Amino acid sequence: MAELNTGGKAQPRVDLTPMVDLAFLLITFFMLTTTLAKPHAMDVAMPDKDKENKDDNLELADNRTMTVLLGANNKISYYMGQLEKPLEGPTTVDYGKNGIRPVLLKKLKDVQAATGKGLIVVLRPSDHSSYRNLVDIMDEMKITNVQQYMIGDISDPEVEQLKKDGIY
Q1: Which of 85, 119, 124, 144 is close enough to 154 for a disulfide, judged by CB 3.0 to 4.6 Å?
Q2: How many CA atoms within 13 Å lie on the side-chain side of 101?
Q3: Rounded to 5, what percent of the chain is helix, strand, coil?
Q4: 153 vs 132: CA distance, rounded Å
Q5: In terms of C-beta density within 10 A (0-12 exposed, 13-18 middle, 19 or more buried), how is residue 162 classed?
Q6: CB neighbours of 94 closer than 8 A, spacing ≥ 6?
Q7: Other CB atoms within 10 Å distance of the CB of residue 86
Q8: Beta-carbon count within 10 A of 57 CB
Q9: What is the pLDDT of residues 55-78, one digit of tens each?
């Protein structure tokens, strides 16, 4: 408790040492009992490598498949179907709400209306794209609620397409 010392004729003073001790105890208590923000991780299901059948490929429907090529300088090139005979594209866009997001939202609606099934997005990062680009496009998948997407290796014709678009 605070103590008032009058000590004869001297000026009265209040001993604040116990109040300072209490303040430090409260600060320590609240620092130790608060929880810090936990990092949120995104679950990505990656397929196992088939060591026996290395050329075994998964066939995807052309009218449901959108391939997204991650290029240099924060640019994306996308096409529907196969690169040799695309149903649409290749088209170059940026990341974010004015770039790939409206495209993904439109394709989700179009594929759902045409097939009754969801859109499948194949993400293919190039050697010139950054790790941040991959995280950004995965964030766009989460924002636009794309249920089926996968990360694959980029092929030589796709690298040539990126060079032709000027984003490799």
Answers
A1: 124
A2: 10
A3: 35, 25, 40
A4: 17
A5: buried
A6: 74, 75, 76, 100
A7: 16
A8: 8
A9: 666 677 788 899 999 998 889 999
The tokens of 47 are what? 């397929």
Question: In order of start, what are the domains of the chain with their CATH numbers?
Answer: 62-165 (3.30.420.40)
pLDDT band at 2 (very low <50, low <70, confident <90, very high): low
User: Tell me: the pLDDT tens digits for 74-94?
Assistant: 899 999 988 888 888 899 998
CA distance 35 to 111: 43
Token reading at 151:
């990360």
Both tokens assigned to 129: 């794209």
pLDDT reading at 26 higher than 70: yes
Over residues 115-139, the pLDDT tens digits come to: 888 899 999 999 999 989 999 999 9
The answer to whether the CB of 83 falls within 8 A of the CB of 142 is: no
First-to-final CA distance of the chain: 73
pLDDT bracket for residue 156 (50, 70, 90): very high
Q: Which residue has the tokens 């695309």?
A: 86
SS3 for 151?
strand
CA distance 167 to 159: 10
